[in-house]
Amino acid sequence: MKLLTHNMLTSHVKGVTKGYPLLIKATEVKVNEVEFNPEFVSRMIPKLEWSALVQAAEGLGHLHELPAELTPDYEKNEEFLKKAHRVLLEVEVIEGCLQCPESGREFPISRGIPNMLLNEDEV
Amino acid sequence: MRKTLIQTNFCEIKALLSLRGKPFHPAESFKEQSPFWCLDGLSEEDVRTVMARSVCAKSAFELWGHGRTHSELRTSLLKYPSENMTPFMQRDSTYRINVYTFNKTLEFADRIKRIDAMEYLPFEGTVSLKSPQHIFCLLEDYGTDPNNIPEHPSYVYFGRWIADGQRELIRSHSVKNRHFIGNTSMDAGLSFIMANHAKVKENDLVFDPFVGTGSLLVACSHFGAYVCGTDIDYNTIHGKGRSSRKNQKWRGPDENIRANLRQYGTQRSYLDVMVSDASKPVWRDTVLFDAIITDPPYGIRESTRRTGSHKDITKPPDDFCGESHVPVSMAYHLSDIFTDLLNFSAHHLVKGGRLVYWLPVYRPEYCEEMIPLHPSLRMISNCEQTLSSHTSRRLITMEKIKEPEESDALAHLSDPRFSPYQGHNAFREKYFSGLNKKLGKDDSMDKVNGEGQEG
């Protein structure tokens, strides 16, 4: 699971109102090389909750010098975009789980794939 | 593709033109059913860009002349401004003339005769068959009935070749050669057409909520989009379980969606896949996706499932691995699938973003009013593909025009209880009962072939 995806996910456990962001408890994290595409990174930034991204990256120990605040004029700042690219697309949680911050419910991640299915009593 | 989707061709070309910001301007003589289309108001660049994406279109030409006979063609060509011809007929250039005969095979000698007959045109360059700078084409239309080929063409055209379409993609991306497939993997041609209908472009973010083996994502990644998907089936998402290949019992280690993208060199496009129930979305409530492209289950070859409590507990599917157990599956009614899908799209598509999906239809009961609607989405197209005499599926394309409002007066239209599509919930039963139905004396052969009246 990449951090770009994580930033867009929220807990859907019944009755939960503060389900975002999901906490990440990782037992295995990989950093892969992904082709850098500044236009794509630039397009994704407005969709993000920046503080949640920083928090998630920090929690994994993979902040990679990502600034705590969005740099103004980031579209033209290649150095910034490269850092964002690394954290959004190259850091991947392979094993672990996502945890609902309100209910504590855990969603397992295995082989890089989160399992978000709820049980009948949670729905 | 087994059947030519004329209307799908129309929608594909229209969508690709609108990606260029150009309208679809048919010439006076335009006939949608004809394999030859004449369009006005396009630059060569427009045409090249459309042809770089289209799987429906075979070739595109700059039209110089046309007519019902070769004599009319000649008159038409002599009227074409010579200043538009001369740049391509320079003395130091090379060219060749091709002859395309639609619905007829010509002997080699007849082809040569026709090429020679074009010598009234001011060709100054030299003929090169191998790699000419300019290619010209004489096109003859012999109709569309292979059992009734006329002696003379009904229409002839002459033009300068600009570009070919991407039909080669259908072969290069054939599901037959793909690493990871399933029973209902979308064939390559249709996947690309869907991506075109959705106007997928480079750097888009595309989502498939019923991703299966990722065929639609493969097509979108080919056009430069970044892709993600979810599916309720654990085994499919993890690439485990029984193989869909003839001589293979279980899936191998390199069979998953990521591997498919790697196979075609678009692994940078892979964002994530997740095991998730499409009726219980896990996304933050904000606009996210440039396009949502999907083929929801029809309940025939794949079961429609969702998590939840139900009085009649359905037996969970036979699992390869215990982790994939879907907690108490309940029947996911077809009408609910589409209502949920439209609601989801209204909330999570960017404005101007498109939803493209297949809607299964029981033909005897079909009417246009039953296509699900949503106040935030505008219907762009609805193209039918016949599956059998009594069933078909429709490729629906919708575009988000505004953000959904709580107080929407038309909100009841998205309420499943009001959906006129309700009758299709028993699609599975209707599909199978139709197949098993014996021919009673009321049934005519026409009805069985799908050409008769519909009830």
UniProtKB/TrEMBL annotation, chain A:
Q: Where in the cell is it found?
A: Cytoplasm, Perinuclear region; Nucleus, Nucleoplasm
Show the GO cellular component annotation of the record. nucleoplasm; perinuclear region of cytoplasm
Q: Which domain of life is it from?
A: Eukaryota
Keyword annotations for this protein, in alphabetical order, are:
Cytoplasm, Nucleus
GO BP terms: namely:
rRNA (guanine-N7)-methylation; tRNA methylation
- Gene Ontology molecular-function annotations: protein heterodimerization activity
Recorded hits in InterPro entries, A to Z, give: Trm112, Trm112-like
Q: Do the record's keywords include Cytoplasm?
A: yes
Q: Does the keyword Nucleus apply?
A: yes
A Pfam family the protein falls into: Trm112p
The record's listing under SUPFAM superfamilies reads: Trm112p-like
Coiled-coil annotated residue ranges, if any: none
Q: What is its main location?
A: cytoplasm
The cross-references to CDD domains, in alphabetical order and at most eight, read: Trm112-like (cd21089)
User: Mind telling me which Gene3D superfamilies this protein's record contains?
Assistant: 2.20.25.10
Q: Which family does it belong to?
A: Belongs to the TRM112 family.
Q: What is this protein called?
A: Multifunctional methyltransferase subunit TRM112-like protein
Protein species of origin: Myripristis murdjan (pinecone soldierfish)
* Gene transcribed to yield this protein: TRMT112
UniProtKB/TrEMBL annotation, chain B:
Domain (tRNA (guanine(10)-N(2))-methyltransferase TRMT11 N-terminal) ranges = 11-167
Origin superkingdom: Eukaryota
Q: Which reaction does it catalyse?
A: guanosine(10) in tRNA + S-adenosyl-L-methionine = N(2)-methylguanosine(10) in tRNA + S-adenosyl-L-homocysteine + H(+)
Q: Where in the cell is it found?
A: Cytoplasm
Q: What Gene3D superfamilies does this protein map onto?
A: Vaccinia Virus protein VP39
Q: What Pfam families does the database record attribute to this sequence?
A: Tmrp11_N, UPF0020
Q: What is its EC number?
A: 2.1.1.214
Q: What is its main location?
A: cytoplasm
Chain's role:
Catalytic subunit of the TRMT11-TRM112 methyltransferase complex, that specifically mediates the S-adenosyl-L-methionine-dependent N(2)-methylation of guanosine nucleotide at position 10 (m2G10) in tRNAs. This is one of the major tRNA (guanine-N(2))-methyltransferases.
Q: What is this protein called?
A: tRNA (guanine(10)-N(2))-methyltransferase TRMT11
Tell me the organism.
Myripristis murdjan (pinecone soldierfish)
Q: Which gene encodes it?
A: TRMT11
